[in-house]
């Protein structure tokens, strides 16, 4: 009888041994370590239009671009083949076109570069005005366009060349900075 009890205990031990060691291996699970913040890839779009509206719901400016690409690490949005449309204090429509641009997030400043051309109608005139330069910054909040680069202004068929420009649409004032060449004779 003791013999049978010994065989039974040995068989039971063998079954426990087989079950314990033939089951799935349990591995210790450790959470994956995160080395620093995750990279925000930003966004991009083709044939995009951004519209900034005022308190009255009407557009303050529109920004069209062949491509836009957010650079989250730099807090900027890069633009290609840009067209910026805006209205002056009298409601006259102005358009600025450039090869490239950059919009600083939360600043309202659009920087245009590469063959920048601005066209519109000056207050009190029916003739279009044109401004050409290589770089131009436009503060959409203050409605001020500035450049330190050489600039050409064409109004009523006459041309002025200068180094630098400040144009305040709210105050309806254009100021050429230095080295002005040209004349407006009656």
Describe, in short, the structure shown.
The chain is built from 1 helix and 9 strands; from the N terminus they run αβββββββββ. The protein has 186 residues and is mainly β.
Notes on the protein architecture:
With 186 residues, this protein is mainly β. The protein has one domain (44-181): Sandwich (lipopolysaccharide transport protein A fold). The protein is 11% helix and 56% strand. The chain has one helix at 2-22, and strands at 44-53, 59-71, 76-87, 93-104, 109-121, 128-139, 144-155, 158-168, 173-181. A 9-stranded antiparallel β-sheet has the order 1-2-3-4-5-6-7-8-9, with no helix packed on it. A hairpin with a 5-residue loop joins strand 1 and strand 2. The protein is elongated and about 125 Å long. The model has no long low-confidence stretch (mean pLDDT 80).
Overall CATH class: Mainly Beta
How would a textbook summarize the main sheet?
Answer: 9 strands, antiparallel
Strand residue content: over 45%
Q: Order of SSEs, N→C?
A: HEEEEEEEEE
CATH architecture: Sandwich
Report the strand count.
9
Q: Which strands sit side by side, in order, in the main sheet?
A: 1-2-3-4-5-6-7-8-9
**Approximately how much helix is present in the residues?**
10-25%
Cα-based radius of gyration, to the nearest Å: 34 Å
Structural class, by secondary structure, is mainly beta
Record the SSE blueprint.
Blueprint: H1 2-22, E1 44-53, E2 59-71, E3 76-87, E4 93-104, E5 109-121, E6 128-139, E7 144-155, E8 158-168, E9 173-181
Antiparallel strand pairs: 1-2, 2-3, 3-4, 4-5, 5-6, 6-7, 7-8, 8-9
